[in-house]
Amino acid sequence: GLSGGKIIMPLNINNGGANGGASSSYFEVNVFKETFKFNAAHFVAYPGFRERLHGHNYLVSIRLIGSKKIASLGYLLDFGAVKAVTRKVCRDLNEHFLCPALSDVMDITYSTDENNREEVEIVCEDGSRFVFPKNDCIILPVVHVSTEELTIYLYGKILDGLKADELRSRGIHTMEVTVAEAAGQEGTFRFPIPSEADMKAESLFDVRRYLEDAETEEGQQPTTNGDNNHENDTKTSTAIAPKDGLSTQLQALADAINKGALELQSAPVTAADLEKLIAPN
Questions:
Q1: b/e map 40-54, b = 16+ CB within 10 Å
Q2: 234: pLDDT confidence band, cut at 50, 70 and 90?
Q3: Into which family does the record put it (predicted)?
Q4: Would the pTM of this model clear 0.85, i.e. be above it?
Q5: Closest C-alpha to 130, from 53, 214, 74
Q6: Cα 164 to Cα 168, 200, 208, 226, 238, distances in angstroms
Q7: CATH code of domain 5-278
Q8: Parallel, antiparallel, or unpaired: how do β-strands 45-46 and 49-50 relate?
Q9: pLDDT, tens digit, for every residue of 175-213?
């Protein structure tokens, strides 16, 4: 069923009221299940700072934004497909240490012990040394195992499972992935759904595309209260697509809106309009 979806009915500017019918609506499907979770250990490290090793019970939710009409079968997308893909991605991460393969402050090496068991050794900038059984680790293509970078990684994995071209054929033009590490602490990555050809041609979900090329300034270190659990902190952040390399995706989204996927204003929507909306800063 479509019990988890929402129909958003914005004010119909063209018709002068809120009763414009399907022409002023679009479908938004939100999927969140208790099984969209994984328990994992990590620590964030960057020049001059390292958290202590700790863990979280992560929760994941998916938001899909689509066109003004749904398929003749009565729904925008089969929830079963979203649930199956998201559960698998979470299951693959569950009960592991999440290791950032692209870290600039961690020296990561692989070896075997005297019993020929594979190990991962991590030496940090501050001299701390960790050795884990390799089977207990997931080596992620991220620089930091932060909630924000996890959302980018998960977006790519979930989109790969759902098949971008299939989503686009159903009129779904944007996907959001939200990861919560605790109550009141979550990050969201929002990105226009690219074609599968663009996904292969460009490293759209390489987290380094989304990191500012600047040194961390004093005073930017997170408050840890000594326990790394941040239970008293509240953090909500949204990572959005960078300006570089997005003109094709932005124009495709503008074209979809102009064809009737979203009718939110009387003047034609341009790529520049969407760039201001998605990356206002």
A1: bbbbbbbeeebbeee
A2: low
A3: Belongs to the PTPS family.
A4: no
A5: 53
A6: 6, 11, 22, 42, 21
A7: 3.30.479.10
A8: antiparallel
A9: 999 999 998 899 999 999 998 888 877 788 899 988 876
